[in-house]
């Protein structure tokens, strides 16, 4: 799978959205179905607002979770975003 270019901003594709913040479960809704979000996936996707690049998303996550390993945050965030981009749920502008 090819790596995300670091300078394009990321956002959810049209028709895709996150469940309400107060919903019982964190879910990503898209035209073909839904995906239950686990761990930090919701926090990562909330940062895909069409204004941040991949590097900026990783930097923000590292700032929010300073006790976590920065390299692990980057690896996991990039892997999640790449999977979602391959499924057409995420766009890079």
Set down the secondary structure blueprint:
Layout: E1 9-12, E2 17-18, E3 27-30, E4 33-36, H1 41-46, E5 49-53, H2 54-64, H3 70-86, E6 90-92
Antiparallel strand pairs: 1-5, 1-6, 2-3, 3-4
Helix pairs in contact: 2-3
Structure overview:
This protein has helices spanning 41-46, 54-64, 70-86; strands at 9-12, 17-18, 27-30, 33-36, 49-53, 90-92. It is α+β, with helices and mostly antiparallel strands. The chain has one domain (10-88): Arc Repressor Mutant, subunit A, CATH 1.10.10. β3 and β4 (33-36) form a beta hairpin.
Structural class by sheet pairing and helices: alpha+beta
Count of helical regions: 3
The fourth-level CATH homologous superfamily is Coenzyme PQQ synthesis protein D (PqqD)
Order of helices and strands: EEEEHEHHE
Major β-sheet, in short? 3 strands, antiparallel
**Percentage of residues in strands:** 15-25%
Oligomer: single chain
Top-tier CATH class: Mainly Alpha
Question: Keywords for this structure?
Answer:
93 residues, alpha+beta, Arc Repressor Mutant, subunit A, three-stranded antiparallel beta sheet, globular
Short recap of the structure:
The chain has a three-stranded antiparallel beta sheet. A three-stranded antiparallel beta sheet has the order 2-3-4.
């Amino acid at each position: 799978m090819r790596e995300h270019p670091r300078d394009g901003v990321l956002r959810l594709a049209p028709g895709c959205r996150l469940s309400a913040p107060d919903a019982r479960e964190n879910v990503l809704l898209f035209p073909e179905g839904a995906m239950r979000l686990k761990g930090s996936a919701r926090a990562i996707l909330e940062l895909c607002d069409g204004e941040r690049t991949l590097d900026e998303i990783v930097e923000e996550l590292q700032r929010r979770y300073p006790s976590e390993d920065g390299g692990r945050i980057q690896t996991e965030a990039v892997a999640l975003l790449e999977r979602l981009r391959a499924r057409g749920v995420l766009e890079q502008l």
